[in-house]
């Protein structure tokens, strides 16, 4: 049986990141300085080193996301799980707010009327916030497809997209659509991702701003 | 570029599970009937087929968990993300409730006083609920260690443990401790897991009860 190690509660995260750093080195993976804390936090939340290969960043993505938060950007997610995971206290300290419209009654109603998903409707509702917007999509590829359509038709130009839905139906092409745009983004290529990954990326950016 | 496939919103999940079933077959992985929907839903939430090898079930675990929910068991989680992800509507239909004590003020206070984690304190607070309890642990190995200590000292015998914390410090041995007990459990061996996985397991059990 493996042995329990005595680690003080406040030291657990630090120790985890030391292990992640060492194992990345063992695998000869060298991360770009700007992206390092985002990728490490995603590995921390998933125990999956594959993310070191698949996480894709547009130019200066992390610096741009940090600047947006600093200027009071709001975050819009497609799941209440991601919303629960985001450190709203730090975000609110910069004047931002986190939103998820998925569980609202009007969202379900509009989705039914338009034969679309609640996630796609949520993107349209987000346009009404009237603030700089970071979209953090951890579940629904249809949210990314709708964002792409809105970008193409210039209905809404998101300031930033974190595109990490997980799954088997349309997840891969939806991510490719976002990567083909000019919108600053962090996308995880392939099937993997999730609400936990979306929240981890948001938090990595938020923690960088207060450390 | 990959092609988007047209799938009706209500068909997306069904189509995802068909792909998962086909790929499990391609990998020559045959799941036990009782465990099938739990493992498939975890793969659905993670896009990670490794779970088919590492998910560990005590004897008749899924049937036991279903019986507990049917009899009004409550679910206690160690993160608000897992709490957000659990289908509380179905759970409440059977008379149960879902709880997470992590963000409560008394939890932080007690953790500080006792130099332990909020997750460990949360396990102690759960003992006061006075209902059959399913613990769904997706984040904190210290929660599993505390549960193990409580089982050993007969302070609290959980009715069921879903033990799927993710991470690098004490996650592996904490899971082994739970697997060494007589308490019915579903545990993911190794480092992987997470709040999303904990919620997916709870939901697989809940959905089985209403389909």
UniProtKB/TrEMBL annotation, chains A, B:
Residues annotated as transmembrane: none
InterPro entries: Cbl_synth_CobH/CbiC, CobH/CbiC_sf
Recorded metabolic or biological pathway in which this protein acts: Cofactor biosynthesis; adenosylcobalamin biosynthesis
Domain of life according to the entry: Bacteria
Gene3D superfamilies tied to this protein: Cobalamin biosynthesis CobH/CbiC, precorrin-8X methylmutase
Keyword presence, DNA-binding: no
Keywords, in A-Z order: Cobalamin biosynthesis, Isomerase
Single Gene Ontology MF annotation: precorrin-8X methylmutase activity
GO BP: any one term: cobalamin biosynthetic process
A Pfam family per the record: CbiC
Keyword hit for Isomerase: yes
Domain Cobalamin biosynthesis precorrin-8X methylmutase CobH/CbiC: 11-207
Family designation: Belongs to the CobH/CbiC family.
Identification of the protein by name: Precorrin-8X methylmutase
Species, as recorded: Kineothrix alysoides
